[in-house]
From TrEMBL:
CC terms in the record's Gene Ontology section: mitochondrial intermembrane space; riboflavin synthase complex
Species of origin: Tetrapisispora phaffii (strain ATCC 24235 / CBS 4417 / NBRC 1672 / NRRL Y-8282 / UCD 70-5) (Yeast)
Enzyme Commission code: 2.5.1.78
Protein name, entry field: 6,7-dimethyl-8-ribityllumazine synthase
InterPro entries (alphabetical): LS (IPR034964), LS/RS (IPR002180), LS/RS_sf (IPR036467)
Listed CDD domains: Lumazine_synthase-I
């Protein structure tokens, strides 16, 4: 059984002054919708105003790194920079190597992206061996064996923005 949630956080973070972007793939839409909803609900609980949660889409998980970079750049160019961004995608293992290639390349690209955009990029990519695992991690499986990981991503975006975000004066 997997450990659930972020665990003990060192304080309650105030997200009332934050602008956070969510960019999500459209593949595996039922799972994606639950994860996005979980992230938004958790950010709202932490004070992020609904109008400061900006949602964008890309076709699939492989498009997340490029789409995320352009999304962040566009928001900045519009004079409405983000404090963090959560790319959300779901990859489910099939019978070919496609899963491994997409998982690996997307993971590495998202990791590198943080230094390029100089803001927190929360890792919201589920890489599951089965559809059942993905449903569980989205908190929508029949037995509710896990919680919605989107909630963790929303909380992480607020915490990282408050502690280390681009608008945080050290």
């Amino acid at each position: 059984m997997a450990v659930k949630g972020l665990g003990q956080i060192d304080q309650q973070y105030d997200g009332s002054k934050l602008r956070i972007g969510i960019i999500h793939a459209r593949w595996n839409r039922v799972i994606i919708d639950a994860l996005v909803k979980g992230a938004i609900e958790r950010m709202r609980e932490l004070g992020v105003k609904e109008e400061n949660i900006i949602v964008e889409t890309v076709p699939g998980s492989y498009e997340l790194p490029w789409g995320t970079k352009r999304f962040v750049d566009r928001q900045k160019k519009m004079g409405e920079p983000l404090d963090a961004v959560i790319p959300i995608g779901v990859l489910i293992k099939g019978s070919t190597m496609h899963f491994e290639y997409i998982s690996d390349s997307t993971t590495h690209a998202l990791m590198k992206l943080q230094n390029q955009v100089q803001l927190p990029v929360i890792f919201g990519l589920l890489t599951c061996l089965t559809e059942e695992q993905a449903f569980a991690r989205a908190g929508i499986d029949e037995g509710h064996t896990m919680h919605n990981h989107g909630e963790d991503w929303g909380a992480a975006a607020v915490e990282m923005s408050v502690k280390f975000g681009p608008n945080n004066d050290f």
